[in-house]
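User: Hi! I'm working on a homework problem where we have to compare a predicted structure to a textbook description. Could you give me the structure for the chain below?
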Amino acid sequence: MVKGVPSPRKRGSNTARKRGSNTARKRGSSATRKPLDSRFPRIKSEDDDGNDRKRKPRIGLALAGGGPLGGIYELGVLLALSESLEGIDFNDLDVYIGVSSGGFVAAGLANGLTPERMRHMFIENDTADEVFEPELLLKPAFREYAMRALSVPPLLLASIWNYLASPWSQSFFESFQRLSQAIPTGIFNSAGINQFLSRIFTAPGRSNDFRQLRHRLFLVATDLDSGESVVFGAAGQDHVPISTAVQASAALPGLFPPVEVDGRHYVDGALRKTLHASVALKEGAELVLCVNPLVPFDSELAVKRGAGKRHKLVDGGLPVVLAQTFRSIIHSRLQVGMAKYSADYKNSDVVLFEPNSDDAEMFFTNMFSYSSRRRLCDHAYQKTRIELYRRRHELGPILARHGISIRLEALKEKQSLAHHDIGGHAEKEDTLLAASHRLGDSLDGLEHWLKDRLPTRKAA
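Assistant: Happy to help. Predicted structure tokens:
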């Protein structure tokens, strides 16, 4: 689903609204980085007299989390946008925001990795010098297991002593409750993620240092002890290696242990907010493109749209019930945040891309099942193309305000990611579908022309 800012309307609406921007606050960044204003070349306008010049629009990208497949979905969306939008280079934006798995993609883009190259790296595994092994995400956290196991004897002795000292003041189970401290905080070890990204980002032409990047990159994690969001890449937090910041931002509690940075422990950045798009808006971004992979599933809407019989989610057991609950909480919080941007940043635009609420493919695919990555990436790619074409009259004016246009001819052509090489070149086909798209475009244009003409005639 391609959206503007969600409104209180029914979920699945595609309303695009104008967003606002407060005056960019002072970043307080290190002396080696220039202020944001100084990084935008001023382009001479056609009627310029030499004094009044136009500047390049400030554009940001905010990527939410969603497990390994959330990042894969975001790649599919970005692949569709990069070939369908004219006037934007996703490796040359002014600010990148990454949360959880979105941090992988955001950090890659800020380091010059194109969406197509990341697809070949993370999905096709055909980049000989940058091979990503999915097993990195599934290595057991043996060190965490060992540390917790060593804590069992003293905890057990303390529990027995506590019970024997006052057996009538608390129950047997209450006395042994402290043994819960021996439960590991995560199943898998995320250290391999840090090592892999460190190797990728220290290659020639890239950097694992926030301060050395050409564009602003912010990766959001949550401080476990305070519950506050911490923005790595901001002043005072830009000394942390990018690979470590990605690892901390993606440390989903229960799945990965908290990541220690400078004596503090950090977990997934989505615990406080879903997108953190406000970070880009505070940096002065006039357009923020947002991608959110997780939406709750509407089985009734799926039936109405001919997606098959109605799914009773309770039949899927606890995993499906928890998935729907988690997605509902995440998405509800996202809608609240988007509504707040409407009031706080009135001169900026925020455009949201996310799955439709009737997208059974996206909902019922296990977001931690890396084996489904190729199918899901192509699914996100195709759905984004369809929705972008369907919402072209709505999103076209918004994007045009920032020098971006929709390449309708590219959307009318039938394309598949299977035909894309690592350089992003796609095979194009003349198909009946493309011809029908052109016919539909003409009919839509006629409809808009008639709507513009009828009020004029009535007024006359």
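For your comparison, note the following. Confidence is low (pLDDT under 50) at residues 5-53, 456-460. The longest strand covers residues 216-223. Good luck with the assignment!
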